[in-house]
Design goal:
This protein is about 50% helix and about 20% strand. With about 325 residues, it is α/β, with parallel strands linked by helices.
Length: about 325
Amino acid sequence: MSTTIHGKVAKCAVLLFAAVILIGFSSNAFAVTLTLGHGASPGNPRTIAAEAFAKMVSERTKGSVTIKIAGAEQLGNDVAMLTSLRIGALDLTANSQGPAAGLVPEVAALGLPFLFSDADAAHKVLSGPVGERLNKRFAEVGIVVLDWWDNGIRHITNSKRPINMPADLKGLKIRTPADPMTVDIFQALGAATQQIAFGELYVALQQGVVDGQENPLANIASNKLYEVNKYISLSGHKWESTPFLMSQMAVKKVKPAELEVIKKAAKEAGALQRRLMAETDKKLLAEFKANPNVAVNQANRAAFQAATASVVEKWQAKPFGSFVTELVAAAKKK
């Protein structure tokens, strides 16, 4: 009798152990890990927002979807990450406007000179028909737009002199991202342009490969570009987006309910990122002005605007000129 009881107890224990294993397996069997790549440095608002996004997704899906973050160009530059996104090797990216324009040329028009005064104005436009048109264009190349984060109002830095008027740029070599709009703007201003990956920019400035560059204050600070470019000229010549994108192949990896969580978290992280960019801008401007090793000046924006008026006309003449006209009209209403 004792042997029978012990046998039953042992059998129950085995079954209980097997059940625990199966429960544990079933709860994780369909867990998904998605990789999010971006090029920003630690402490940058883009980095902080990406971390917040990952946390929200993990908590709200109860661990069924995990976001693995690879920042600071660990997976290559923005162009490389977009290529990986299209073939499904990368699931998500908080990318840059210029490289994204390589897939959807209309995106570059968001950076028309002096089109937006700040990120809020741009986001209002992108929340309407303009954004819907861009979403459809991205869908055609296998990409889902989750949100439009902020890459800031951009200013000029260089190692030679303050830039007050467009004429001050003549003879300077200015690094631009791989963005046709930025290239057009600086060529209209009389500067020579050169495209260099953001991760290589500090060394290029340090070694004099280029004299200057243009970026929002957050990027100038997080990558310490002010160490090799003493002069910060507040030109405010353009606003740029950070398209937050997801591969359509990655969409197929998650359940519909999980996808909705991802989309909502992307929007909330985007609101955080835009707020951080605005706060960082004010804080950094005060810090740069107080830094004796940095010279900050206000550029003559009216002169810059007049010098770049031809850029708008050039882009309205492109095959997607109707989109450019719609964008300009929408921006004026906001």
